[in-house]
Every structure is written in structure tokens, then in C-alpha cells.
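Hi team, as promised in this morning's meeting, here are the two structures we talked about. I've kept the exact order from the run log so nobody has to guess. The first one is mostly here for context; it's the second one we should focus on when we meet again. Sequence first, then the predicted C-alpha cells.
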Amino acid sequence: MHSLRFVAFLISAGVMAGQTSGPQFSLSNMDRNADPCVDFYQYACGNWIVSNPIPADQSRWSQFDELQERNREILREILDKASADDPKRDPVSRQIGDFYYACMDEQTINRKGLDPIRPELDRIAAMAGKGALLEELVRLQRRGSDVFFSFDSGPDFKNSNMNIAQASQGGLGLPDRDYYLKDDEKSVTLRKQYVEHMGKMFELLGESAPEAAADARAVMAIETDLAKGSLDNVTRRDPQKVYHKMTEHELFSIAPFLDWPKYFAAMGAPKIESLNVESPNFFRTVESVTVQHDFKDLQSYLRWHLVHSAAGLLPASFVNENFRFYGTLLTGQKELSARWKRCVDLTDSDLGEALGQKYVERTFGPEGKARTLKIVNEIEHAMHTDIEKLSWMTPATKQEALVKLAAVTNKIGYPDHWRDYSSVKVQRDDAVGDDQRATEFEVQRHMEKIGKPVDHKEWSMTPPTVNAYYNPLENNINFPAGILQPPFYDNKLDDAVNYGGIGAVVGHELTHGFDDEGRQFGPDGNLHDWWTPEDAKEFEKRAECFVKEYESFEPVPGVHLNGKLTLGENTADNGGLRLAFMALIDSLNGKMVAPMDGFTQPQRLFLGFGQVWCTSTRDEMARMMAQVDPHSPGKFRVNGVVSNMPEFRQAFACKVGQPMVREPACRVW
């Protein structure tokens, strides 16, 4: 899929009527000994952090992760019941139940050994030469492995109501290109560990230790070359730099290593009139890689990505070795997550809207949509007021911004029509095959979108997903089922706390439509410049303030956040809470509300926002996220925002010169 991804808030799903356990706003989470004007995050979350050590099977732990764990428990109960071999089960229950059962059946998986991927291993071994690359490339990509590159469909940036084919960079086994290129000690060590890991996986496939080590080095050389030709994460955030519409012939001229019409047909795509090539230079790199590397090394590369993509459903030796590198070494996780958790996640990933039907039936009442829509309308009204009052924006651009805001559409809860997975064959004794067939179904579904109108009712997240997002190409905000639950929304608490939680969520998503990326798209989702030059300069000047602010933050000593990578999320965090504050004040309509538990309404709003992000993270995970995650860590999502708000300064009587009073304060929206 192209690199311009929808921008997500990272929140939760799953309304539980009467639910009292799990994450929630509580004054007991606070560290009363901390000074809110020195470190508000510590003040809001200090006792929660002490009382909630990171579980051994987690690389980080937060109120967000607590909520996700509770959500998994709900899905587990649904799947445990559905997996009983009962002939009276309805078709959806039978499908998700048998899929989950096969994933959980470790005995059968261990007994089968490599049999599920043996035919593909044999095909790779039998390849006659580089001319056979196309066929195997297609087979692996249809299994979900983006060997060499990624091929998908999506809206045309400049005609967003129509889907076109999209070819993007890919083919790496490490999280990001910079893992291959940085020369600091941590990066060098991790690359050595990655090569060792690949060698161990090749040995598990039956290779001798020397042969496995040689193959691992060959794969590393190929992936390093691909990384050198890849765009960095910051560049990929700019839609102008990842939109290159080409014909088949133009793509062939830069990358003749494939018969592209034959490739497209084999992938299941219709005739391609044109496609977006995210990075033409990357495809020139792929061309060089396929020409310059030995055929045997290319076979090793294909074999590695096959076993890597299937590792989680292979025998225990593969699962454990995969976890040793990707879990322990990369993220610091101490223990492998329980199998049921992994199988719940896989079912949600592969058959998400089938599982989502059962989830919604159990957890999401009709009042959920009404509550969310009410808050959305209030926050949209606040943003309308905010735009009208901006001092730095000219009337012409303000008018365009208001037109875009009015055009934002809202999707709440779950799709109007459920996806039909009935053609996906699921067997109770074939975990790898089930995953492969579900993945091929999804790949084919995306291929069939090419050349057709965009379905604006489709969701990019499943109903149980713990998240929310804004889609710039459709100009809509999306809240999966169950967003109205603690710590984001609690009907037992006052409005101020809920505005600090769910209100800031809604404001965050709305602001994404006007961050450094979203602002480049119009009300119809098309990429076009609706800003006057002077307003664009004013925006960039204000955005640069956020870049500098967040680059000063260190999640791990010596590791700084990337202010440009996190710019969109930081803009949305700052704008979102400001809009929530405006909506709260507007809702009070001048009324004086007596303090609750010793805190005023503004103070409770800020505490509600702060406690959403109570988080502890292992150093390994913090290093990785600083490199690849567009979101700032919880501590800086909190302190970075409140330190920019005069309203916070006033609420807690902070003085100039204290850490939570940033001078100059950063603000765009």
C-alpha cells in the first residue's frame, strides 16, 4: 500500500455496559508529591506507573494497553465459544471458530512440521533461473509477503473517488530502512543479531550452519541494497513526494526486470491503464538488485521471506526463534505472549469483519453512535470557531478551511454492510493454509478495486480494533466500535474528564485534516494546494516550532524524537486538546461549576487527558518507536501539549520559567 497512510490516534474499542474493571480515570493514579507545573505527566500518572509494572509478555504497558487486553478477553470468549465443533453454529461462527481452533492447535502444527510450506520451498528450489522470478514473486506477494516491493490499490491522489494500482517500496525484514544504514553501536549490533537470527531460521529449515550463515549474509546484502534505495519515513509523509502516476510502459522503462503486464495479470489485477509508483528510484534499485545479485542469493532471499512470514504458525522452534529476535532483542519483551492472544489477533487480522459482527452484537449498543456523534458535533463547532478566530490566516484561506471542515464525514462503530468471507476456505487442521487463503482473499479484494470507484463506506480498521483514524483521501474521521469506554469515555464521570479523553480524541482526528500532511488535500480528498503562499509560510513557521520542541525530548538517554516524523501527530495532539477545552467551556455556557474532589473543571479536563497516556516502555521498544513511530511517547504527548497551552498555565497557576510554561508556546490550530 502506498506510504500515505491514514493517521491514527491509537485508542481503543469495545463498549462494555456496566464495566468497572480495567483502565479508568482515577485520582489514585496521581502523584500528589509532583508539581503539575514542573512535570504534569508525573503528576497525573506517577502512582499509576509505580502500581503497574510492565507485564513480562509486553514491551510497553499503558492505560491503552490495558484496554486492549480487556478487548482481547472479550474476543477470546467469543472465539472459544465459536471454536466448539457444534453443527448448529451459524456460518460466521463456524468460520471464525475453526480458524481460531486451527491456530490454537499446537499439537497438529508441531506434528506437521514444515509440510505446510514445503511445496513453496520446493518451488523456490526448483526455479530454473531469474526468468522464473515473476511467478514466485507473485506467489509470495499473494501470500502477504512484500518481497522486493509492495503492490496494492488505493485512491488516486488527484482523483480520489477512483482507485488505481499502487506500487511501493518494501522487501525489508527490519522495521525501517535506517536500521540498515545507521552506524551507531546499537544499530551495528542489531544488524549482527539480525543476520544471526536469519541463520538460525535457515538452520531450522534444514541447512548446515555454514550454509545457513552464508545465506543469511546474502539476504542481508540484498536487503541493505533495497534499503539504500528506499525513501525515509519523513519523506514518505509528504504526499507530493510519493505520487508519481505512470503508465505500464513508463514503469517498464525504469524497471524492466519484470514483464509488468504479465505480473499484473498474475496478481489478479485488471488491465492497468496507469498506476502510482511511490518512488521511481526504488524500482530502479530493485532492477539493480535483481541484475547484480547471484541467482542463488535471490533464492535465499525468497526463502527467508517465506519462512519469516509464516513463522508464527510453524512449529515451536520457529515461533521461539522468531520471538527471540523480534520480541526480545528488538522490543525488550521478556516472555512470548500467550498463544490465545496471538490467535485472537490473527483472527481479527484475517477475518476481522466476521469476528467484528460477533463483537458488535455483544458489546456495542445503539447509544454508542449517538454519544460519539454528539461529541463530534461539539468539537467540529469548536474547530469552526477556532478557524474563524485565527489571527495568522487570511480570509481567503479561512474560507477554504471552513469548506473542508464542513465536508468532513464521520463513521462511527462499524460498517453498514459486513464483508463476506464465505469464499475463504477454513479448515480446523490447517493453520498456515487458513492464513494463506484469508490473505489471498484480501489481496484479490484489493486487486479488484483497481479502476473502480472508491467505496466511502468501507472501513480500514475492524470493529474490535483499538484505534481511530482520519483518512485524508476521503476526508473522514473513523471511530471503531466501543470507543466510548474508560479511560476515554465514562458515563459515570463529569463532562470535563470526558472532554479531556474522548473530546481530545475527536479533536485530534479533526486536526489531522489540517496538519502538515492533511492540509495538502481538499474537501473532496484530492491532492491540491488551497493555501495562499503567505498562509502556507505562516503554517510552516508554526509547524517548525513543534519540530524543534519535540526534537528536544529524549525517550531514552541519547535518543531524541524525530520532530519531522512526529509532526502530524504532535499537531493533532495539540490542536485536539485545545478544541476539547473550547468545547468544554462552551458547554458550561458561563456557569460556575463547583470543584470536584478539589479540582476545577479545567483541571479535571487536563487530568483526564493526561491519564489517557499513562505509559511505561522498555528501552528497546522506546528506541525502536523513536525511529519508526509517528506518535510521540505518552509522557511527551502530555507534557508537550499542556506546556503550549495558556489555559493549562492558568488552570494550575503556573509561573513563567517553569517547565510546563513553554516560551515561546507552539500553536498552529
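And here is the second protein, the one for discussion:
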Amino acid sequence: MQQRAGEDMQTVADLVSRAAQQDPDHLALIHDGSRLTWAELDDRVDRAATALRGLGLAPGDRVVLQLGNIPDFPVLYCGALRAGLVAVPANTGYTGPELAHLLADSGARALVTSSVQVISATEDLRAEAPALEHVLVAASSGPDRTAPLPAVLAAAAPDPAARHRPASADDLAVLLYTSGTSGRPRGAMLSHRALLANLDQCGEIRPTVVSPADVLLLAVPLSHAYGLNPGFGMVAWAGATGLLVDSFDPAGSLELMARHRVTNVPAVPAMYVRWADQPGLAEGFASVRLALSGAAPLPPPVLARLAEAGITVYEGYGLTETAPVLTSTLIGGEPKPGSVGRPLPGVELRLAGAEPADDDEDDGDSGDPGEIVVRGPNLFSGYWPDGAEGPDADGWWATGDVAYADDDGDLHLVDRRRELILVSGFNVYPAEVEAVLDGHPDVMESAVLGRPDPDRGDETVLAYVVPRPGTEPDGAALLEWAGRSLARFKLPASVVFVPELPHSTTGKVSKARLREAGPA
């Protein structure tokens, strides 16, 4: 039986060492034509830890990892943890200004990147983020004042002195930046305890979610909480094999799944939507024993199309702040369209504000909606840097999401956190997009909303824009301009020019009235 991480593991990097000790020649990662066994991966992690400490980085320093789903990501991620550093994953689609905010806010001393755009703007980044001292490029060469990652890792012989054991399981391991209910993206502080606890919680689901014999598709970005912990983390937890897919292509990914006999598929709804219409769907999923969906609701019609092909998909719910999985329909044993299931073992969940089931309860699950409030060892420690807005004194944290529980105890989401837009599983905060649009000289005011996209199974970004008097901005040109500051997934899918926006009595834009007006 699989050993719990919490019994003797202190970091996710320890899971790599355990897998290497238990079965050193077992395949750990597959990517394009390359293959790494667990022994080889463990050695590379040692070299990465030595290399990072060799830069003069000290335990607790932050290192930003802006890498795709390539072997360098898990190597540097686990290397950072093994060296006692704090890993800060960054979306590869981030523009210079977005990455500069993350670097400056985290106070990162090192950046590892594969982004050509970022590599060409390293001097600008250093100006915006004065703590940044080292830029490692995931290529054989880069511009001046950068170091080629392959050469740095090759020159680093494993050094036991580079290893650092956390003083406490509550030491900070990862800063994952996420859009909350206000302001710019904030760093959710995830401890070693939180990451390992969520892996154990997933591991306690029966039947077993991941075993050493499984091959997991790792196509969800590792920079996303879903790809990082339930994805790569579970591969390491079980000593299984991960198939890294850096750029998702529905037909190509199905061919890879068939070729490598993938057994487990953690994916987001947008991926299932694109897979559902592919002629190679059945062949791609022929070896799959467990298909999971998270990060956004999966449209019931897509579930039905997949079921017709003999594919059963289990849905779940979680947040970056909960490392991330909270519920799954796996707990009930069967998928239920429209539901995200029940809490994982070790997760306590209640619906605040719901009508009590009886007079002695403060919270209820009688079918009335309530805010999801959770408690468990997988919760974050608050937002960087001071732990603000984390769990209360009793360990409870209000998610801001609203749901109701049916008679079986399965949750059904009613609404997400106010204003938040989910695009392919990624958070888009309207205020960030509005700030960019409002910076255009021809824009007087803007309002950004999420609009359901049934074809993709998530949302698209819709922008209402009031032009400045005497101007006639062009939508395409405005989006091209905004694309210099916003990642592609944050860009509005459409822009609607309006003479004015509805406002409340306090002068704030009334998005409720915009929604009531219906789709533009």
C-alpha cells in the first residue's frame, strides 16, 4: 500500500527521493523523445539544488519558475524545495509588466525562464524588480547578464551540503499567484504541510487514484495549482510516470495518450470540450482508467458526449489557496452532472448562511445556497507577505464561492467569487484588465465581465468600453495594444463600445446592471 507522504516526508522533493529509492529504474517523466527514470530525476534535482545554492541563494529566498511543461520545471521546482528555497511558479504567457509585478512583489532573487519575450527584456525587469540578481535561461545561450540553464546544471555536482531540511512543516514552500476578489494577483502562501496534506487527501480516495503502474497526462500547466500538485505532485507521491505535454493540441495529445498508454487524465473542461469532437477520442482514452476534470464546471452536454464514447469523467472543486483539491465526485463513487462532489478525506466543509437543517445548527446543507467555508491541513497560510486573510483562529477559511448540497451531500456550485472570471482554468481579475484598457488614451472608462462560453466549457472575457469624446477607437487595435501588457488568456474576446456605463449611487460601475442587460 502507498505510504502516506506525511509519515516521513518533509517536502515534495522528498517524494522524488523516495520513488528513486523504491524503484530507481522506473520511468518518472516522458517528454518528446526524452525519458527520465526516478533515479535520474533525483540526481538532476540534487544538481539543481546545488546550482541554486551556488548562486548565493539562501533558504527562504524566492525563485520564480517561468517554464512550460518540460522536464526542467519539475527539476527546478524540486531543486528549489530541496535547497530550502521558495518556488514561485509563473505562467509562461505573462507579459513583461505581469512578470515584473510578480518578481517585485515576491522579492525574488532569481528567475528561470524560457520566454523569449522575457529574455529580451531582462534589463527592464531588473529595473522593476531590484531584488532580482540572477536570470537563468532554459536554452544553451541567452543575452548578457543571463546564464544558460543547461550549462549551470551540468556544472553542478550534487552536494549534500546544498540540502536544507525545513525547520517546520509550516515553512513556506510555494508562492502561487492568484487573483483574489480585489487588486492585482496576490501570492498564496502554501507550506510544505499544505502541499503534502493535499496529496495524502487525494491518496486516501478509494479506489486508489494513482498507483506506481499509472501513466498520468501532465498537460495542465505546472505553473497552475492543479497541474503542480494533483498533477506532478501525485506522480511523485505514487512513484508513477508523468507524460509532459507542453503545448496542448487535442488531436496530438490523443495520439500521445494512445502511444504511451496513459491511464490517468487530470484536465480542465476546455480540454474535454476540444477532445469530445476529435475522431481519435476513443483510441486516445482506450487505456484511461480515470479521467478527472477541475478548475471550472464541465458542461453536461460535453459529459454526455464523452459518456457516449465510453469515457466517464469525475469532477472536482478546489482553489489555489487549498493546494488545491477540496471535493470530488470520486468520493460518491459516480459522476453526477452539475455536481463537484463531496469533501476529500481530511477536509471539513460547511455552507455558511445556508438555512440550517435543524434549529441546533448554525450552518446547513438542506439545499439552500451558502458560502463554502473549509478547514484542513491543506489550507494556505494567508497571502504574501504577512499571511493576511488566511484561515481564522479556528482554522476555517471562507472561499467566497456559493454552493448548495443535494440530498446525497454532493455540492453544486451556484456562483464563483464575485467578479472572478475563469478562462481555461486560469483566474482573470477584471480590475487588472480594466486598468490596462483605461490606460489607453482613447478610453474614458471600461468594465470587464465574464461571459459563459458553452462551446469551451468555461468563460470568455467581455469588455465594455466608453471612448473619450472626439475619439473613435478600433476594437482590434485596442486589443493589440492591451496584449502588450496582458497574457493572451486575459485579453477580452470581444469589445463593445458604449456611450456610458451604469453607475451606482456611490459612483461605482454597476456590473449587476450590465449583466441584467444581457449579452452584448
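Starting points for discussion:
Confidence is low (pLDDT under 50) at residues 356-366.
The first strand starts at residue 27 and ends at 31.
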